[in-house]
Amino acid sequence: MKMSGSLLRSAQTPVLLIGLTALIALVGSVAGPTVTRVSIVALVSVVFVAGQSAFTGNSGVMSFGHVAFMAVGAYATAYLTIPVGLKTVLFPDLPGGLGFLAQAQAGFLPAVLLSGAAALVLGVVTAPVVARLSGLQSGIATLALLIIVYNVLNGWTAVTRGSSSMIGIPRNTTVGLALAFAALAIVVSWAYRRSRSGLQLQAAREDHWAAVASGVAVGRHRAIAWVISAFLCGVAGSLYAGFLMSFNVSAFFLSATFAFIVMIVLGGYLSLSGAVIGALVVSVLQEFLRRLQDGQFTGGSPLPAGVADLILAAVLLVVLVKAPLGLMGVREICLPSRARRARRGAGGSPGEKAPEEGARVPA
């Protein structure tokens, strides 16, 4: 009985987060094309931040390189879904060893999973580096990964078309499909957070040397989180490609990295709830700022290019000053507990707070 109650309490957070994303999907389904577009982008962003949260939220290491996994997922989906006839035109100079890519073809759902697997392979290859580093060095290493992947994609023209766009990708990402993968990403990220490996990694996040002294294999758990997050971010890239229908390598570099960092930091990079809520809020804010910059709220007078990014950066600075751990801190959204309701009914102290989820993590 006690165990079932614990499972129900643990399931509250992912259920509430999925309900929140379902609400966004519902609005996107019944509203006009613009709202539908914003909803899909927001849901794809949820897939990405849930993936990055599996690593950053548990390890405490801020990653600047997860967009690289997204890029791998997007390019893999392009190769698997662009019609074969068009690929022979787009990639006439494929190296001999990669000639099979011109004939590769898959439905969109298998393509999404295979794209996630491609990103996972990159995660496995780079995991030993991430496992050996920590703190600032680890963050810089993730940035180096992003730069390496960007330059390979930009320079390997015969395979990636370089700075030219990948075109001809069928539009397959719908609101419903994006919602399904957002829900899956939330469940996977939460399940890892509550797993033995996730809890031990959180213990290392709170006190690295105490965890090491307790026998926690910090590097191994960090590598596991890294690989899981790579798969989910690759899935996000696949969905993004299936929505855009065309993209080039510049879509997966510093600008995208900054946008996702704002989402995670604004909501709370140590909390899955914070990452998801930040993704939804920032996606809506970005659309508002885009329209503001285009002059839709200024009587038709467009604002100088870059104003939207400046405002977004200013919002990030304010949040960092006022709430360094983001709006959610280390808390997760959940229903009020019975004890808390009882305290309120008995007139408990207004300043009394419920214990924060994740504030103490068992080693």
Topology of this protein?
Blueprint: H1 2-30, H2 33-59, H3 66-81, H4 84-90, H5 108-132, H6 135-155, H7 157-160, H8 175-194, H9 196-206, H10 208-213, H11 218-244, H12 254-267, H13 272-294, H14 307-322, H15 338-345
GO molecular function: branched-chain amino acid transmembrane transporter activity
Membrane topology: Multi-pass membrane protein
Transmembrane segments: 41-60, 67-86, 106-126, 133-153, 173-192, 223-243, 249-282, 303-321
Describe the structure.
The protein is mainly α and 363 residues long. It is 70% helix and 0% strand. It has 15 helices and no strands. The protein has helices at 2-30, 33-59, 66-81, 84-90, 108-132, 135-155, 157-160, 175-194, 196-206, 208-213, 218-244, 254-267, 272-294, 307-322, 338-345. The longest helix has 29 residues, at 2-30. The radius of gyration is 21 Å and the shape is globular.
List its salient traits.
single chain, disordered C terminus, 363 residues, 0% strand, mainly alpha
- What would the average pLDDT be, to the nearest integer? 87
Oligomeric nature of the chains: single chain
Distance between the termini: 25 Å
Question: Main beta sheet, described?
Answer: none
User: Structural class of the helix and strand makeup?
Assistant: mainly alpha
The overall strand count is 0
Tally the helices: what do you get?
15
Low-confidence stretches: 349-363
Helix content: 55-70%
Element-level helix/strand string? HHHHHHHHHHHHHHH
Computed Rg = 21 Å
What is the beta-strand fraction?
under 5%
Principal-axes geometry comes out as globular
